[in-house]
Design goal:
The protein is of the alpha+beta class. Helices cover 24% and strands 35% of the residues. The radius of gyration is 19 Å and the shape is globular.
Length: 123
């Protein structure tokens, strides 16, 4: 029984450590930017968006990016099939880079909202 309790405590400590590593501020935590925020639309003002993708990610002025919304499937069963589906919303073009992490993009088509994601257009 003691071995079981030690294993449980060790697992809880590992989870807490992992959560602490990911919970840093987005502007100072490379882990958060790399795995959680990269590609996120941070703001939408008219036909201009601010996206969390910059020089460090290989972004360049003039690149066209697809806008994708990840939509939860209604009544998705627990199991091996994904509980989300990709919905293509439109496209944006990077108009300026203002940091190694961020860019301003103009909406070419579609209606993006905050928390949609952008990715390089597939050909």
């Amino acid at each position: 029984m003691k071995v079981y309790k030690l294993a449980l405590v060790a697992r809880c400590a590992a989870v807490a450590l992992a959560l602490a590593a990911l919970s840093g501020c987005a502007t100072t935590s490379p882990t958060y930017h790399e795995f959680v925020m990269r590609g996120q639309i941070l703001s939408v003002e008219g036909s201009t968006t601010t996206v969390c993708i910059g020089e460090r990610d290989g972004a360049a002025v003039g690149q066209v990016l697809e806008i994708v919304r990840h939509v939860r499937k209604p009544g998705a069963p627990k199991g091996k099939s994904p509980a989300f589906r990709r919905e293509e919303i439109g496209t944006v073009r990077i108009s300026s880079l203002y940091d190694e992490h961020y860019a301003v993009a103009e909406v070419l088509e579609g209606h993006p909202v905050v928390n949609d994601t952008v990715e390089l257009e597939r050909r």
